[in-house]
Backbone:
């Protein structure tokens, strides 16, 4: 899961302080393992360095929580490109798909479309592997089947997510 | 192996053979299809996918001329299938389309080879010739050794291969299959799909499969995903696989 872009997604909702971003992140993505403040500020520092976010206000007092950040137009473009570019089917993909789905719901974007293009990417990968199975030796067959089972698991996860979008949206916006 | 003249002048391999434009169909208050558009190329192998109740089987029946849409049209070559009367649609299905279902639906009292020869006998072919052609198809489907067995003596995979041979014996231009591997375990399903895609490719038959199973779909060239009676958003701009 790309925590920097996920953070950018949360910033896309409204200008925020680091503390607000950490709270939103922990609520939506890290119930069991809250994100450290250090990670929040290093993500914000990367985002400002790359002109995806800007510091808009700095209130009097000490500490990074006094700083308010806002997404830039360049940041919004980067966000959309992240959301609507399917990920290559690799192990551990679910968390990134989940993060993109939640961010698209938070922003009122098209989560169904995002999941459909991801599904299409997975099915294309399955086709490649199925073709590779043709006339393959047993060892290759087993390796291909192992990869196919993982892709099938991802597809089931995507289907299940799609069927729960209404409830998920309610949680994302609560 | 063709037993009757087809009703269309055949488009070149890779050109559009079957298309749906603005299909709508309701059953009472249930809107099964809500505006479906796509094209399928001659020789293409396409999976129609979608969750239960999405309208995918209804769509297959509309494409095959079993059901007529309330709005929109289905074109097969230059023929507007949805504009034909019931008798013409039945003739078209007999001459140009083949069908495979989830459960082979073989005639239980007839041997495998007799099941496969039935469509040819009904079309007026002599028994000797029909049996010869049926055997050749059983051979292509790799079940010739079971020609004299009754359906109850066949395994699920063998029975499905016999059903596919029966669907292909009249050399249809399009083979429609509704969950053809739905009743088979995974290894047998893979073997059936491999055989089905090999045989349809070798005979230049266009294949349209309805399935909810991604593994089955992975044997086709592309998928069309139906959701709530519409082609799902990730697929609306996908073009036929021109091979």
Residues:
């Amino acid at each position: 899961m790309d925590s920097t872009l996920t953070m950018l997604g949360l910033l896309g909702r409204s200008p925020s302080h680091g503390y607000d971003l950490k709270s939103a992140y922990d609520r939506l993505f890290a119930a069991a393992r809250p994100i450290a403040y250090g990670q929040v500020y290093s993500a914000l520092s990367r985002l400002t360095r790359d002109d995806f976010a800007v510091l808009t206000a700095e209130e009097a007092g000490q500490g990074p929580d006094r700083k308010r950040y806002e997404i830039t137009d360049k940041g919004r473009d980067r966000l959309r490109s992240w959301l609507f570019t399917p990920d290559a089917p690799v192990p551990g993909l679910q968390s990134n798909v989940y993060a993109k789905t939640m961010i698209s719901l938070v922003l009122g974007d098209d989560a169904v479309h995002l999941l459909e293009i991801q599904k299409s990417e997975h099915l294309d990968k399955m086709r490649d592997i199925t073709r590779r199975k043709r006339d393959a030796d047993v060892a290759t067959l087993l390796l291909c089947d192992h990869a196919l089972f993982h892709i099938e698991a991802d597809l089931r996860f995507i289907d299940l997510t799609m069927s729960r979008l209404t409830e998920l949206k309610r949680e994302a916006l609560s | 192996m063709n037993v009757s003249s087809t009703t269309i002048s055949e488009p070149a391999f890779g050109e559009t053979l079957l298309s749906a434009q603005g299909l709508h169909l309701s059953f009472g208050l249930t809107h099964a299809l809500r505006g479906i558009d796509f094209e399928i190329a001659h020789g293409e192998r396409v999976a129609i996918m979608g969750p239960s109740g999405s309208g995918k089987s209804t769509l297959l029946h509309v494409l095959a001329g079993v059901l007529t849409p309330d709005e929109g049209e289905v074109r097969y070559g230059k023929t507007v299938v949805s504009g034909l009367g019931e008798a013409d649609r039945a003739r078209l299905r007999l001459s140009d389309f083949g069908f495979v279902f989830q459960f082979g639906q073989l005639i239980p009292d007839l041997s495998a080879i007799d099941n496969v020869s039935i469509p040819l006998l009904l079309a007026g072919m002599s028994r000797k010739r029909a049996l010869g052609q049926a055997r050749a198809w059983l051979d292509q489907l790799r079940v010739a050794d079971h020609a004299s067995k009754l359906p109850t003596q066949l395994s699920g995979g063998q029975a499905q291969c016999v059903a596919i041979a029966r669907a292909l014996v009249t050399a249809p231009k399009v083979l429609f299959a509704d969950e053809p591997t739905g009743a088979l375990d995974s290894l047998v399903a893979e073997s059936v799909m491999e055989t089905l895609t090999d045989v349809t490719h070798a005979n230049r038959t266009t294949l349209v499969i309805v399935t909810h199973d991604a593994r089955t779909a992975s044997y086709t060239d592309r998928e069309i995903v139906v959701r709530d009676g519409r082609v799902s958003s990730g697929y609306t701009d996908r073009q036929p696989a021109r091979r």
About this structure: Strands of chain B lie at 16-27, 30-41, 45-49, 71-76, 79-80, 97-100, 174-178, 206-210, 222-227, 230-231. Residues 16-235 of chain B form a domain with the Rossmann fold fold (CATH 3.40.50.300). The helical segments of chain B are 56-63, 86-96, 112-122, 127-140, 156-168, 186-202, 214-217. Confidence is low (pLDDT under 50) at residues 1-6 of chain B.
